[in-house]
Amino acid sequence: MKLTKLERSWALYDWANSAYTMTVTTTVFPLYFKAAVSDLGVTASQSTAYWGFANSIATFLVAFLAPILGTLADYFGFKKRFFMIFLAMGVTANLVLGFVPETQWILLLFVYILTAIGFSGSNIFYDAFLVDVTDDERMDRVSTYGYALGYIGSTIPFIIAMAIILLSPKVLPFDGYTTPKIAFILTAVWWFAFSIPMVKDVKQVHGIPREANPIKNSFKRLGKTFKNIKLHKPAFIFLIAYFFYIDGVDTIIKMATSYGSDLGVDSNTLLVILLVTQFVAFPSALVFGQLAHKFKGKIMLYAAIIVYTGICIYAYFMTTTFDFWVLAILVGLVQGGIQAISRSYFAKLIPKENSNEFFGFFNIFGKFAAIMGPAIVGYVTLLTGRSNYGVMSIVVLFIIGGIVLTFVKPHQQAN
Fold first, then answer.
1. Which one of 148, 227, 276, 402 is least enclosed by Cβ atoms within 10 Å?
2. Domains along the chain?
3. How far is it, in rounded angstroms, from Cα 189 to Cα 395?
4. Are residues 385 and 45 in contact, defined by beta-carbon separation less than 8 angstroms?
5. β-pair partners for 208
6. CA-to-CA distance for 63 and 51, rounded, in angstroms?
7. What φ, ψ does residue 75 adopt, rounded to 5°?
């Protein structure tokens, strides 16, 4: 599909910020953090717990801010302003990660939390800009194109970072703590550089006129939106199901590398495995969409939930690097699919004329959902002293999500 300039500029932000997810959140930073605190006498299970708590704190802060910022952004001129604030926070904090001493592990986690807030916060407004760059007929394809760019684009700075790590110190004059810092700086530069088209070209087209007391009126609009959701029972029930199962998905994404390290998988192997997972996820997401068209979206959501439940159970029994390879491939097969189909299935449950308001709640539920999982993993791991118990514990999120999903009885067709 040939994209317009606006559509390309918007989709390129997925290409830009996915590098952060791949290089910082999922791979290099958790490995770097665990190595740094290990040298300071912190046990593997404790560092996994602290990593989980840091992710929960960041997600809670974003989720707390999301409702009021989302409704404020509906006023003309506000959406771009909030996007820029969070983008600047994320990129700047990511750059600072490259200069924080590895011995200051509390400061490391604090700066990481700032990067996570910047990343998640900017994504709220990035998603909302979709309605400003394309029409309803092209929206699904443009959105999917953004996902595809994210999967592929995230691998490029990751491969460069991995090459630097693997070539040091034998070929390049860097030690084990310097190479991750270079990766953080590289990611910040990549994120900023490919955000420029979005910042330059994309403007807010849809919105409401500014008025006096925007914050007060935004709270009123939030209350009205919540009442509207309750009037649409299928959408409201789906949000509850989504709240649980997407929490499990996000937790696995954030905690996988840390868990692999606890199993004894060496850092270089972890990086290669997670790179392969990205390449698996790209075509799998496209295939998942085709299957959803044939078998209906709800059936494919059940299928993904079942696979994720199996992943959690399998993770409990993992003991070898090969086991982690299998786990990573399984995650790659369903990760993009469950995220994409959740969005499209919800879109068919809600009234089109109120889609922006309803998707505001969709984003809120998604942000709040990412709090419980890492905290559960952290608590159970600290309580038992074993990471596999922590990972196994999140199976309850998929079970609850799947059960609640059975109660979604759409009054309109949701393919």
1. 227
2. 5-405 (1.20.1250.20)
3. 37
4. yes
5. 75
6. 18
7. -70, 140
Distance of CA 6 to the CA centre of its chain: 24
* pTM (two decimals): 0.73
Burial 144-182 (b: 16+ CB within 10 A, else e): bbbbbbbbbbbbebbebbbebbeebeeeeebeeebbbbb
pLDDT number for residue 225: 66
Query: Which residue carries 């539920």 as its tokens?
Result: 365
172: DSSP letter: S
- Residue 399's pLDDT is 92
Q: Residue 99 has which token pair?
A: 């200069």
Helix pair 321-347, 136-153: axis angle to 10 deg: 160
Alpha-carbon span 32 to 97, nearest angstrom: 11
Taking the C-alpha atoms of residue 193 and residue 205, their distance in angstroms, rounded to an integer, is 24
Q: Which residues in 263-292 are b (16+ Cβ under 10 Å) and which e?
A: bebebeebbebbbebbebbbebbeebbeeb
Residue of 201, 189, 25, 191 whose CA lies nearest to 109: 25
Residue type, 225: T
In DSSP notation, 61-116 reads: HHHHHHHHHHHHTTBTTHHHHHHHHHHHHHHHHHHHHTTS-TT-HHHHHHHHHHHH
Question: Which residues of the chain are modeled with pLDDT < 70?
Answer: 1, 67, 73, 136-141, 169-176, 207-219, 221-222, 224-230, 254, 257, 289, 293, 351-360, 367-370, 410-415
What does the alpha-carbon distance between residue 323 and residue 219 come to, in Å, rounded to a whole number? 49
Of 362, 86, 309, nearest to 199 by C-alpha is: 86
Length of the chain: 415
pLDDT of residue 415: 47
Cβ atoms 368, 335 nearer than 8 A: no
